[in-house]
Amino acid sequence: MIEKNVSLKPYNTFGLSAQAKLMARVVDVPSLQSVLSDASLVNEERFILGGGSNILLTKDVDALVIKNEIDGIALVEETSDSFFVKSGAGVVWHNLVLHCIEKGYAGIENLSLIPGNVGAAPMQNIGAYGVELKDVFSSLEAVDIASGKIHHFDSNACEFGYRESVFKRKLRGEFVITAVTLRLDKTPKLNTTYGAIEQELERLNISSPTLETVSQAVINIRQSKLPNPKVLGNSGSFFKNPVVETAKYEELKKKSANIPGYPAGDKTKLAAGWLIEQCGWKGKVVGNTGSHAQQALVLVNYGNATGVEIFELSEQIMYSVYNTFGVQLEKEVNVY
Asked: Given 1.20.140.10, 3.40.50.1460, 3.40.50.300, 3.30.465.10, which CATH number is that of 73-185?
């Protein structure tokens, strides 16, 4: 059934008011293909919506919004050292993490509590606490919007980069991801060295961490730093951490000796939150929006913000950081 004039406020984590001209909810591949082939809808622009955790709506959506609600998690293959787990794109990402932990499938425990649905994970190449999706990715299935045909993509075809994939660039708007298969470990290789995980495990008096306790440590850390979008509208990290030439980093260190930097191949990754904080934005309220008091990287909706307000704040922050450090920030969210 096609719904008309649907409020998108419940479907984006910023909690922004916007109307969708049309909406179709798809629960499996055949229902998606049916919508895509519907002759009465062929001239409508298509807008694919998952968990709504990585979009900034600056206007009404004059399009057919396809709400991806494809469910299901299944173990599809098992080898001597790996589990291959297939998930529908409409599954909440954190629910998939919890399912895998419960089953003893290791590898995504550090990605606990990342907002959004499974279908967005490869688009963004989501990552946190030393782990990225590409580290555990096996393949995905996606439907070609133009033809309705199913295509399969391996890791190389996805062209993963830092919060990047072929679906954000070259193939943007051309496919709907319907399922993702991960290769997870039978023998856990716990990664507790990144961020504050070890300190949190110590605080919890855990000397022999497990999948469950590493996940809980990550959840505790995220909840202490990041606002719950159900309470305070946000999309998590609004900006990417910029990657610069190492020579640029050394130059910046001469001016700011304590500037954090992390190896990124032959380059250096900077902490966008630190840069934003140094420019005085952390905790600053601008109208109905602002930079969160606990994490400068997170822009928030204090209740009545518009997407345009949040966008304009992001532009001011980007200008400020560039003017101060000569570093160009890039938005992680998709702006519509």
From this structure: 3.30.465.10
